[in-house]
Amino acid sequence: MERLREHMEAAILERWQDCPLAEPLARHESPRRQSTDLPRPVRGLRAANKVRVPAIRVVPVPEETLACNHIVAALPDGPQRDAYRDLQRAVLQRIDEEGMRVIGVTSASVGSGRTLTSVNLAVSLAVNAHRPVMIIDFDLDAPAVHELFDVDLKAGLEDHLFESLPVADLLFSPSIEGVSVLPARGTVGAANEAGRSRQLEALLEAVKRAHPEKILVLDMPSVSNWSDEQAFEALVDGMLLVVEDDVTEERDYRRALQSLSGGKLIGTVLNRVPSV
């Protein structure tokens, strides 16, 4: 495990020389479900050449829920909040320098805190950098973004991709200014099917045209679950790889690096580093 940590720390220092993570990032624990009264649905956004900008429904998320589910970037203070802010600054520098719009977040294996990293990165971009962000849950086999915000779903991204349900009926804002969420409800095998088609690519292009100011953070399946590396990498402008100390195996980390060989990898996030 020590060798893996040394390899990962070397990768982090290579990619984040100007802005290393200051503090260890938290590991996502499955949150406790709470009942949520969803506001009325909205109209408008469709993945088409001409996209109408909708008024997104707002789902109030109490601060206790954010804290319980470790969305620390939305909280007033704390060392883990600072760590995500450092990550956000490093990512934002690459976004601005290279004109990136879509940032994918993946992991070498499941259970590495990938979704928590995606959400906290997006929230930090909105809260600290004042950049509007849309979180898109593309882990269609095991989506968890809506669970972190404690929102019950009747439909999700896959219903737009495969059933043509309007995106506006799916979007919500978790009462954090500048943050919108396109959730998924979970359909086995749907991520690889969507990755091989042009449906998701068309959706991303439509959202970018409708919201030219937004950064899109795509919470992707773990690399170990990808069936077509080139198709998945083609969806994003830059990719973050999340690994977790004492959880990610060295063979999985090396395999993930080999899979992400298309030049899109912009950094590695090492989660759950023991405090020194």
Structural features, described:
The protein has 276 residues and is α/β, with parallel strands linked by helices. The protein has a single domain (2-27, 39-271), classed as Rossmann fold, CATH 3.40.50. It is 36% helix and 14% strand. It has ten helices and eight strands. The strands form two sheets. The protein has a six-stranded parallel β-sheet. Strands 1-4 form a two-stranded parallel ribbon. Helix 3 (79-98) packs across helix 4 (114-127). The radius of gyration is 17 Å and the shape is globular. The two termini are 17 Å apart. The relative contact order is 0.21.
Short description:
The chain has 276 residues and is of the alpha/beta class.
Radius of gyration: 17 Å
- Can you tell me the CATH architecture? 3-Layer(aba) Sandwich
> What's the number of helices?
10
Tell me the major beta sheet: 6 strands, parallel
- Quote the distance from N terminus to C terminus: 17 Å
What class do helices, strands and sheet pairing give? alpha/beta
User: For this structure, what is the CATH class?
Assistant: Alpha Beta
CATH superfamily: P-loop containing nucleotide triphosphate hydrolases
The averaged pLDDT comes out at 79
- State the CATH topology: Rossmann fold
What sort of overall outline do the alpha carbons produce when their principal axes are compared?
globular
Strand order of the largest sheet: 5-3-6-2-7-8
| Number of separate strands | 8
Which residues form runs of ≥5 with pLDDT under 50? 7-53
Relative helix content:
25-40%
Strand content: 5-15%
What's the number of structural domains? 1
Q: Give, in order, the helices and strands.
A: HEHHEHEHHEEHHEHEHE
